[in-house]
Design brief:
The protein has 407 residues and is an alpha/beta fold. The protein is 43% helix and 16% strand. It folds into two domains: 127 residues, Aspartate Aminotransferase, domain 1 (Alpha-Beta Complex), CATH 3.90.1150; 237 residues, Aspartate Aminotransferase, domain 2 (3-Layer(aba) Sandwich), CATH 3.40.640.
């Protein structure tokens, strides 16, 4: 059967995006890694660039876990002993002891009764929210929440969806006040760290507001935080936004694929909620889990994080983040200061954003340029992501290159 008319329609849509400059375009392909040496952290080789080394400042690997020998060894040893993949979904025969141990460790790390892992963080938030949202549920969401939360709400079809302005806690309170007597259940969902800007929710305020209105709703006001960019990336012990703001959500979702450096996502909560999700979440029931080797690597990364070595990595990461932010400000660049290693350089112009991104790549620095519609018009930026792999020399090199930019 021919699909020529469909293909023409799809290509026309892409052509429109191309004309607007909103296509993601070709993906950079990593073909090699140059280990850290001397005063420099690791460098990356890209397809089409020969042996030119790149300093990667566009990675979610905030602690540099993927290249750490202990993490690699944990995965290799498990693969040799248990094979490369689980071979089935969890409820048939795909649950290995590494999965169970990782879930228990994640729950303890976050001070919860139980936890469960999913194939990705995206699947986790969808697989958590959708089963918990009924036709009598109101969901209230921060305006800048991640795409995974937005799509989870589309799938769930709640009774109503409310959106409050970014970090507008008074607006959240007003929506809860207006909802009294209309819904059985309310779910308030927010990112912990907002990945485009590096700013974060004050969970102590969000949780306090939820608790204030809880008695007015038959099935509670439930706070849900997706702290995928926060867990393991900041806080004195890597507990993320909950640790930084001293607020504790009812349900915490996060990822194994950023600071912990592996793959997959997870949710931690009270045991009764986790038991319900295991029975009701299609994203869990009908998908293979992460491999047993990945689970072992994630467990090793979590154990490292929850140790003196992990605290030292977090301290170094914090110092490099502060050094980079100071360098931007000292050279006249605008940023949104904060403790998280996502450091936005606010350009506020589409053409200049593209030009600066290309200039940095010419000088061996990989960053993410963000233009409309990924970010609102006027908020165009370069997103830098600092890593514990970065050295003082790496940070100073990046600042030096930026200092010489003639825009």
């Amino acid at each position: 059967m021919s699909v020529n008319r469909l293909e023409a329609t799809l290509q026309a849509e892409l052509a429109g995006q191309r004309a607007q400059g909103t296509l993601k375009g070709a993906e950079a392909v990593v073909v090699g890694v140059v280990p850290a040496s001397g005063d420099k952290g690791p460098r990356y080789l890209l397809d089409g660039y020969g042996q030119k080394p790149f300093l990667r400042m566009n990675s979610n690997g905030y602690l540099g876990m993927p290249l750490r020998p202990e993490i690699i060894a944990a995965e290799e040893e498990t693969v040799r002993a248990f094979g490369t993949g689980p071979g089935a979904v969890r409820f048939i025969s795909g649950t290995y002891k590494q999965h169970v141990a990782l879930e228990a460790k994640l729950a303890r790390f976050h001070g919860r009764e139980a936890g469960m892992i999913f194939s990705s963080a995206y699947a986790t938030i969808c697989g958590t929210l959708v089963p918990l949202i009924t036709s009598e549920t109101l969901v209230i969401s921060d305006a800048l929440n991640h795409n995974c939360i937005i799509n989870a709400l589309r799938l769930a079809r709640p009774a109503e969806k409310g959106v409050y302005k970014h970090l507008d806690y008074a607006g959240l309170e007003q929506q809860l006040e207006a909802a009294i007597g209309k819904y059985k259940r309310v779910i308030v969902v927010t990112d912990g760290v907002f990945s485009m800007r590096g700013d974060f929710t004050d969970l102590s305020k969000v949780v306090a507001i939820c608790e204030r209105f809880d008695a007015h709703f038959e099935e509670n006001v439930i706070s849900v935080v997706d702290d995928s960019h926060g867990a393991g990336a900041y806080g004195a012990t890597g507990r993320g936004t909950e640790e930084v703001t001293q607020g504790r959500a009812d349900i915490l979702v996060a990822t194994l694929g950023k600071a912990l450096g592996v793959n997959g996502g997870y949710v931690v909560a009270r045991a009764g909620i986790i038991e319900y999700l295991r029975e009701k979440s299609p994203f869990y029931i009908y998908s293979n889990p992460i491999t047993q080797g990945e689970a072992a690597a994630a467990l090793a990364a979590l154990e490292m994080l929850d140790s003196p070595k992990g605290v030292a990595l977090l301290k170094h990461l914090s110092a490099m983040t502060a050094r980079f932010e100071k360098g931007l400000v000292d050279h006249g660049y605008e940023t949104i200061p904060g403790p998280h290693p996502v450091v936005p350089l606010m350009v506020r112009d589409t053409e200049k954003t593209a030009k600066l991104t290309a200039y940095l790549k010419e000088h061996g620095i990989l960053v993410t340029g963000l233009n409309f519609p990924v970010v609102p018009k006027g908020d165009e930026e370069l997103r830098f992501q600092v890593s514990a792999d970065h050295t003082v020399a790496d940070i100073d090199y990046a600042i030096g290159v930026l200092a010489e930019f003639q825009g």
